[in-house]
Amino acid sequence: xxxxxxxxxGYVGLVAGVCFxxxxxxxxxxxxxxxxxxxxxxxxxxxxxxxxxxxxQKNYAARRxxxxxxxxxxxxxxxxxxxxxxxxxxxDGSANLSYIATVARQIAxxxxxDCLVVVKSTVPVGTNDKVEQFINDFLIHDxxxxxASNPEFLAQGSAVIDTLYAERIIIGTESKxxxxxxxxxxxPFKLPIVSVNRRSAEMIKYASNDFLALKISYMNDIANLxxxxxxxxxxxxxxxxxxDRIGSKFLNAGIGFGGSCFPKDTKALDYIARxxxxxxxxxxxAINVNKEQKTMLVKKARKRLIxxxxxxxxxxxxxxxxxxDDLREAASLENIPLLLEQGADxxxxxxxxxxxxxxxxxxxxxxxxxxxxxxxxxxxxxxxxVCFIFTEWGEVKAVTPETYEKLMRTPLVxxxxxxxxxxxxxxAGVEYHSIGRKA
Length: 439
Ligand code: UGA
Fold this sequence. Notes:
Elements: E1 3-7, H1 11-22, E2 26-30, H2 34-41, H3 52-61, E3 65-68, H4 71-76, E4 80-83, H5 98-110, E5 115-119, H6 127-138, E6 145-149, H7 159-164, E7 169-172, H8 176-186, E8 193-196, H9 198-229, H10 233-241, H11 262-275, H12 281-294, H13 296-305, E9 312-316, H14 331-341, E10 345-349, H15 354-360, E11 364-366, E12 369-374, H16 377-381, E13 386-389, H17 394-397, H18 401-407, E14 412-415, H19 422-427, E15 431-433
Uridine-5'-diphosphate-glucuronic acid binds at residues 122, 152-156, 209, 212, 216, 250-252, 254, 257-259, 261-262, 320-321.
EC number: 1.1.1.22
Protein name: UDP-glucose 6-dehydrogenase
Organism: Peribacillus deserti
C-alpha cells in the first residue's frame, strides 16, 4: 500500500482521498483552510455527498486518513501526491491555473524522496508538461519527480460510488516508472485502466465532458423543434435510446446543463482550440444552445402570463441538479433575477441548496419582487399563481398532479425537467408546460 498525499479537499480531492483510504492506502489530505480541516477531523464533510461522511469517519477511526494544513509534512515522504485543486474559469474562458502552480511550488519545496505527482484537476492539454518542468525548476532536494495525468470522471451527487466503481480509470504517463506506480495504486479498485500518454489523458477528460454537454444541447435543440412540429422529445429520446451506438443516458432535454464542469469545460476547450488557431464548431454550438435554453421556460411563461408583477410564484428546485447543494451555473441563478425584476413574489423550495441561494438572494424584498424560502413544498404551492420546476429532486417528483390542482390558486406549472406526463397533468386539471412536448 502507498503513502498518498492529496492537495485540495473539494469534490475531486476529498472523494479521491477517502476512496484511496477505503481501499487501504495511507492518505493525508491537505487544505489551506484550517476551519475546514478541523471540521473534517471531527468527521464532518464540507460537501454534501452520499456516503462520504460515513467513509470519512470509518477511515479516520481506522487511522488510514488524516487531514492537515501542514503540507510540508504531508508531502515530504509521500510516494504519490494527487492534486485536486480547482481550475476555475477566467473571463476569456481559459482555466485559471494559479492554484495548481501554488501546490506545485509547495511540492517542489517539500519533497525529500522520489515522488510521483498526479494531477486530477481538469487542465488544458500540455499543462502537466509545464507542471513537471515547474516542480523540477523549484526542487530543493535531489530527488526524482514526475507528473502524471489522472483525470476524474465523478459526478456530483454520486461521487463516492462513481469513484469506487468507475467505468474506467485514465492514466496518462510519460515513463514506465510512473505508469507502474499508478497501476499499483489503482490495483485494489479492480477497475479497467486505460493507460495513455499525458496529453491524451488530459484531452480524454475534455473530450468526454464536452461530448456529454453536446449530447444534452443536441437533445435540447431537438426538443425545441419537437414543440414546433408536434413531436414529443421523451418519446423521441426513448426511440433513440434503443440504439446502442447512441446509448440511453444523457438524453434528457431540460433547461440546460449547469454545474462546475460542463459549462467551464466547454468554454475551456473552445478557448484551447482558438489558441491553436482552430475553431471547434460543435462545442461552440453546444455552448450557444445551452445559453438560450436556460431562460427558455421563464420566457415561455412570460408570454402566457404577460407579467409576473404581484404574482405568487412557486419555485421548486434551485441547485443545478438533485443530490447536491451546489448552485454553480444553475438555471435558477439566471431565472430568479428575471422573475424578481418583473415583480414576482417567489416562494422557493430546495432540500439542500436554499441556504446557499439565500446568501446570493437574501430573504425578503428583492428589487421589485420578493423571495421567501420554504422548507415544505406545500407552503410554496399554496395560493400560487404559477409554479416553476428547475430541479428534479425526488421530493419534487413525489408531488402528485392533484396537489398542484388542489393547492394553487391557478394550477399552472412550467416544468424544466419533464417530471410529469402531459396527459396525467391534463387529467388532474393542471395547465402544464414542459420542454419539447405539447402544452
Ligand atoms: C459532470 C460529468 O457527468 C462527470 O462525469 C464529470 O466527472 C464531472 O462533470 C466533472 O468534470 O467533474 P456533474 O457536473 O457533477 O458531472 O453533473 P452531471 O450529472 O453530469 O450533470 C450536469 C448537468 O447536465 C446538470 O445540470 C444536469 O441537469 C444536466 N443534464 C444531465 C441534462 O440536462 N440532461 C441530461 O440528460 C443529463
